[in-house]
Amino acid sequence: xxxxxxxxxxxxxxxxxxxxxxxxxxxxxxxxxxxxxxxxxxxxxxxxxxxxxxxxxxxxxxxxxxxxxxxxxxxxxxxxxxxxxxxxxxxxxxxxxxxxxxxxxxxxxxxxxxxxxxxxxxxxxxxxxxxxxxxxxxxxxxxxxxxxxxxxxxxxxxxxxxxxxxxxxxxxxxxxxxxxxxxxxxxxxxxxxxxxxxxxxxxxxxxxxxxxxxxxxxxxxxxxxxxxxxxxxxxxxxxxxxxxxxxxxxxxxxxxxxxxxxxxxxxxxxxxxxxxxxxxxxxxxxxxxxxxxxxxxxxxxxxxxxxxxxxxxxxxxx
Length: 318
Known about the structure:
56% of the residues lie in helices and 8% in strands. The chain is mainly alpha-helical. The chain has 3 domains: 14-33 and 92-220, no CATH class; 34-55 and 68-84, no CATH class; 232-317. The strands form 2 sheets. A 3-stranded antiparallel sheet has the order 1-2-3, with no helix packed on it. The chain has a 3-stranded antiparallel sheet with strand order 4-5-6. Helix 6 runs antiparallel to helix 7 (144-167), helix 6 packs across helix 9 and helix 7 (144-167) crosses helix 9 (187-207). The chain starts with 6 loop residues before the first helix and ends with a helix. 30% of the residues are buried.
């Protein structure tokens, strides 16, 4: 247990679990609260409780003149193209200012992959199904029957709940729940729930963070823009205090993305989760070597670790 003065920095992982669970709940509630969904029954897009229409009704484009055509084109741009440009710009902007912070602190799929890693670690003593790795945490296999039961329940409950929630983005949630209560499913509801469930199950068992590294478009956009940004949030090491490192490798073993934090270089796989901060704080009793920074210099957080950084350390990190 680390000392009391480091309690703020020591609980980054706890705070991260809270943000992950809160965001999962938010995603599940989006279609329920009509924040955003497509109603396949009516063919309408629902945004913030209102039907989103292009407004190109009959008579709108009756004016065949150049000015009339320009009016239609402008209306289409404002109602159809611009909103999607705004939506698609979210992840590049997040990456530019926060790196892959969304991946580490909010992404529901990433949280699922971490849960799968944890259960595999409890059952097999390693994160991966395919073999042990050098950065696997030192964790004794215990209560395997209990964790085996938890794994089986997770393999059923999580994919099915995800299937129900995500199908609500294309079929009205009330319709889905009515069919669940009555036990009478239409083809669309069955296809949605089963399809999403299979995807989630296969991804969490066989793919996991490989998807985050090489496939996920949102993650890749954050990675690219975070890489080129001079102001994105990054994890840094206080190189001026490198001599205090005990070579315990806790920072490496805590990293589920297989990043080597002590290399102190930009790594496209780093999701800014802060696991290395917690691990190092535990080893050095609140005087951990890692911290969040803005760009390559300004120490941002946690306060306990920033207090130990020096001007010399920051200049060496550049």
